């Protein structure tokens, strides 16, 4: 890697949403079927999602993050055995990697919405993807739900079906698209229209995770093709 991008993350939502264990268990189970081989996780943050996504079948799992504090925390997790020993933490973004560094799966969990030029990012991801490999993205859904909280934590957008097609750049095919957390959709709509909180409280996260997420596990079976608080987009390299 020729140099690396450094960024100091502002905000406490990573710690806040790290408490949402039901949510992370749920989306981890839905994403893992698309994750295989060597993996690059872009914007791994504090690793609170990593442990729900990786299993013992990976030869390598590269946790990329531009915040040196996050990388230090990730290294502590690896050294302490809280992440598998095949995990590696590195400071930077995908564009910092050498052209020959490729993976079978590239993951973005609540990251693409923080990237202003997401189409350019997808081109970079495709270049670092092995043939037949997958890009897996979980992002907030529907710009109609864009709230002061989205703005406060640096979201450029939320995503819908048209965005998945827009991001299907050359050499990629869209393999899967579905929504998660259909019950949480209504909680987000309430915040967007009525509450307009710039950030949820610990209690808000606990209620959502303990009440709304278990409902979504059931209701997504019916409504997951139509709407949800989050969208999952999966591409395969041709």
Summarize the amount of helix as a percent range.
Answer: 25-40%
| Largest beta sheet: strand ordering | 3-2-1-4-5-7-6
Shape: globular
Number of domains: 1
Determine Rg (CA atoms, Å).
17 Å
pLDDT under 50 segments (min length 5)? Answer: none
Largest sheet report = 7 strands, mixed
What descriptors fit this protein?
238 residues; alpha/beta; seven-stranded mixed β-sheet; 7 strands; 37% helix; globular
Task: Note down, in words, how this protein is organized.
- The chain has helices at residues 13-17, 21-31, 50-53, 68-79, 118-127, 148-152, 161-166, 182-195, 202-223; strands at residues 39-42, 61-65, 87-91, 103-109, 129-140, 172-180, 230-237.
- By secondary structure, it is an alpha/beta fold.
- It has a single domain (13-237), classed as Vaccinia Virus protein VP39 (Rossmann fold), CATH 3.40.50.
- Strands 3-2-1-4-5-7-6 form a seven-stranded mixed sheet.
- Helix 2 (21-31) packs parallel to helix 9 (202-223) and helix 8 (182-195) crosses helix 9 (202-223).
- The mean pLDDT is 92.
- Helices cover 37% and strands 21% of the residues.
- Helix 5 (118-127) links the parallel strand 4 (103-109) and strand 5 (129-140).
């Amino acid at each position: 890697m020729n140099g690396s991008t450094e960024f100091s993350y502002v905000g406490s939502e990573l710690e806040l949403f790290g408490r949402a264990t039901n949510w992370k268990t749920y989306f981890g189970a839905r994403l893992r079927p698309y994750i295989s081989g060597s993996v690059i996780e872009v914007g791994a943050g504090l690793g609170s999602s990593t442990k729900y996504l990786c299993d013992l079948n990976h030869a390598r799992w590269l946790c990329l993050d531009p915040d040196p504090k996050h990388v230090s925390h990730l290294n502590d997790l690896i050294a302490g055995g809280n992440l598998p020993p095949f995990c590696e933490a590195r400071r930077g973004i995908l564009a910092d990697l050498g052209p020959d560094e490729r993976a079978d799966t590239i993951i973005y969990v609540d990251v693409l919405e923080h990237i202003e030029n997401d189409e350019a990012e997808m081109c970079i991801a495709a270049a670092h993807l092995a043939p037949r490999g997958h890009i897996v993205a979980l992002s907030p859904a529907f710009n109609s739900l864009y709230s002061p909280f989205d703005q406060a934590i640096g979201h450029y957008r939320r995503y819908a079906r048209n965005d998945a097609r827009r991001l299907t750049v050359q050499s990629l095919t869209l393999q899967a698209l579905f929504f998660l957390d259909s019950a949480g959709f209504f909680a987000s709509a309430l915040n967007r229209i009525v509450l307009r909180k710039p950030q949820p409280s610990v209690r808000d996260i606990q209620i959502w995770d303990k009440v709304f997420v278990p409902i979504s596990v059931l209701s997504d079976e019916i409504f997951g093709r139509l709407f949800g608080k989050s969208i999952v987009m999966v591409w395969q390299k041709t």
